[in-house]
Amino acid sequence: MTNRTARGFSLIEVVLGIAILAAVGGAALRVFSDTALPQQAMIRDYTVAMNICERFLNSLHNDLAEGTVVDNMSEKDVTESILDNPAIQDYLKIFAGGVGKDTTSLTTNFKALLTVKPGPGAQSSVVKNIKLTFIWESGGKHHSFALESYVYTK
User: Fold this and answer.
1) Mind giving me the DSSP string for the chain?
2) Which of 22, 49, 63, 153 has a CA 20 to 30 Å removed from the CA of 73?
3) Which candidate, 15, 118, 34, 108, places its Cα nearest to that of 72?
4) Is residue 3 part of a domain?
5) Segments forming the whole domain that contains residue 127
6) How far apart are CA 27 and CA 21, in angstroms?
7) pLDDT (0 to 100) of residue 21
8) How many domains would you assign to the chain?
């Protein structure tokens, strides 16, 4: 018998390499193709919705801390209050699809519902549980984000 040194790749190694390349290439193609754009828009919308809710709740916290009385309510529509809030206008423009778009057309794109109820325990008269639910439609699907917090009132 002669002692041969193996050179090159075997057929199994070549087929395995092509399969791995196809799997990685297919995944990369899906990320950069048009089919991934709706998902990227949904991720952007979710982030913007979260920022809108946070800004609105922060302004509500400030009002309550200053002594403004807010009655208990269940899922009151506060969409107009959000549209009129100057601190949120930049986020609304991003949510509308870009800076420079008219934010008044957003009323068909989202709805914000505010729930205020007494907090837990013995301090329920001065602690409020606040929940803001943000609902929007994107790509023919309904999405929602809810942010909940507690605030001490005077």
Assistant:
1) -------S--HHHHHHHHHHHHHHHHHHHHHHSGGGHHHHHHHHHHHHHHHHHHHHHHHHHHHHHTT-----EEEEE-HHHHHH-GGGHHHHHHHTTSTTS-GGGGGGTEEEEEEEEE-SSTTTTTEEEEEEEEEEEETTEEEEEEEEEEEE--
2) 49
3) 118
4) no
5) 11-152
6) 10
7) 94
8) 1
**Dist CA 107 CA 80 (whole Å):** 8
Domain membership of residue 17 (yes or no) is yes
Please report the pLDDT score of residue 103 as a whole number. Answer: 44
- Strands laid side by side in the 127-138 sheet: 73-77, 110-118, 127-138, 141-152
Q: What is the pLDDT of residues 83-115, one digit of tens each?
A: 887 777 777 777 666 544 444 444 457 888 998
Q: Two tokens at 61? A: 């916290």
Instruction: Answer yes or no: is 4 within a domain.
Output: no
What's residue 90's pLDDT?
A: 74
- Global pTM exceeds 0.85: no
**Calpha distance 46→89 (Å, rounded):** 16
- Give exposure, 17-41, as e/b (b: 16+ Cβ within 10 Å): eeeeeeeeeeeeeeeeeeeeeeeee
Other CB atoms within 10 Å distance of the CB of residue 49: 23
